């Protein structure tokens, strides 16, 4: 078990928090450091994550392990076409013995909600997540109830299913801070998985211990908020978002929510790498997970099999980053 991260008089170092989560989850996972980094960034900036991948690549396991290592209460919801919004949020139950209605809270009332196969739920049920993800509260029979803090949704979807699925509308996709793609493992990683589970077939989320707790997460968020973002970096973010709207293969580009995700996410990434200021590489590293699910391609681009990933790569290549002058990026000298 890794050392437990708890708040001290000096706060919580986000890099220490991330190292503890990564070390503990890697007792089970193999080759998932990049995804764990983005999950940690999303947690630190109050974001949500959409994970896409074919069956069997440990999407749900990754989310569950991350929740367990970070000390958060988690629930897993298997989304199906017959699931109702009330099955997510909860409802009022009449108790005959008392003659009164009693509130039964749904699985959305958790620190980390794993929404499995979100594209199998109907649009009505998918939309029930919107208020929770955006406003961090839900309304049940006219009563507005706050969700726990921290609160995070990690949804998964299978890209190869074509029948019985409901593609997420643009407004729903935009609620996710990042979209991550989990590919099939490289041969060496798959061999490591084979050896690890042959040695211990019972490996799973229960094999991981909490190494962080919600109080530490809340303190670490304050550390992220203090990271400096220079004016050249802000202009670089604006240039990237503007390029996503002006690209010839794009019908609708990124929203202002993406602009905010770039700035906040870059601050969190800088903190994970032990820096008090953002550099262009922090922004570049977030371009794919922030933009790829937000772009609506033009008809010609879709017909020519142009991918969103290719468009984002074009944007990052074409937009010139600011010069890496440490004095300019790190902000004014302290008085």
Automatic annotation (TrEMBL):
Domain AAA+ ATPase span(s) in chain numbering: 45-186
Molecular function in Gene Ontology: ATP binding
SMART domains in the record: AAA
InterPro entries xref list: AAA+_ATPase, ATPase_AAA-3, CbbQ/NirQ/NorQ/GpvN, ChlI/MoxR_AAA_lid, P-loop_NTPase
Keywords annotated in UniProt: ATP-binding, Nucleotide-binding
Pfam family, one: AAA_3
Keyword Disulfide bond: no
This protein's name: AAA family ATPase
């Amino acid at each position: 078990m890794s050392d437990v991260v708890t708040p001290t008089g000096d706060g919580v170092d986000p890099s220490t928090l991330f190292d503890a989560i990564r070390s503990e989850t890697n007792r089970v996972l193999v080759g998932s450091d990049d995804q764990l980094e983005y999950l940690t960034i999303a947690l630190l900036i109050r974001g949500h994550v959409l994970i896409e991948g074919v069956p069997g690549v440990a999407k749900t396991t990754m989310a569950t392990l991350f929740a367990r290592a970070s000390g958060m209460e988690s629930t897993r919801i298997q989304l199906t076409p017959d699931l109702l919004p009330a099955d997510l949020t909860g409802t009022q139950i009449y108790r005959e013995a008392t003659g009164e209605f009693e509130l039964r809270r749904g699985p959305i009332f958790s620190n980390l909600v794993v929404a499995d196969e979100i594209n199998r739920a109907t649009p009505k049920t998918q939309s029930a997540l919107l208020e929770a993800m955006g406003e961090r509260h839900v309304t049940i029979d006219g009563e507005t109830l706050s969700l726990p803090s921290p609160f995070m949704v990690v949804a998964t979807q299978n890209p190869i299913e074509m029948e019985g699925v409901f593609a997420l509308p643009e407004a729903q996709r935009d609620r996710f801070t990042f979209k991550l793609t989990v590919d099939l493992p490289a041969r060496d990683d798959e061999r490591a998985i084979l050896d690890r589970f042959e040695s211990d077939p019972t490996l799973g989320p229960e094999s991981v211990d909490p190494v962080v707790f919600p109080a530490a997460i809340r303190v670490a968020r304050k550390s992220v908020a203090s990271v400096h973002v220079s004016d050249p970096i802000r202009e670089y973010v604006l240039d990237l978002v503007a390029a996503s709207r002006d690209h010839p293969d794009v019908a609708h580009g990124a929203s202002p929510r993406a602009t905010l995700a770039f700035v906040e996410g870059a601050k969190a990434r800088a903190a994970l790498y032990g820096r008090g200021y953002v550099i262009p590489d922090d922004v570049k590293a977030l371009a794919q997970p922030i933009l790829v699910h937000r772009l609506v391609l033009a008809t010609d681009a879709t017909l020519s099999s142009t991918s969103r990933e290719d468009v984002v790569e074009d944007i990052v290549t074409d937009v010139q980053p600011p010069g890496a002058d440490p004095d300019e990026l790190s902000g004014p000298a302290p008085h």
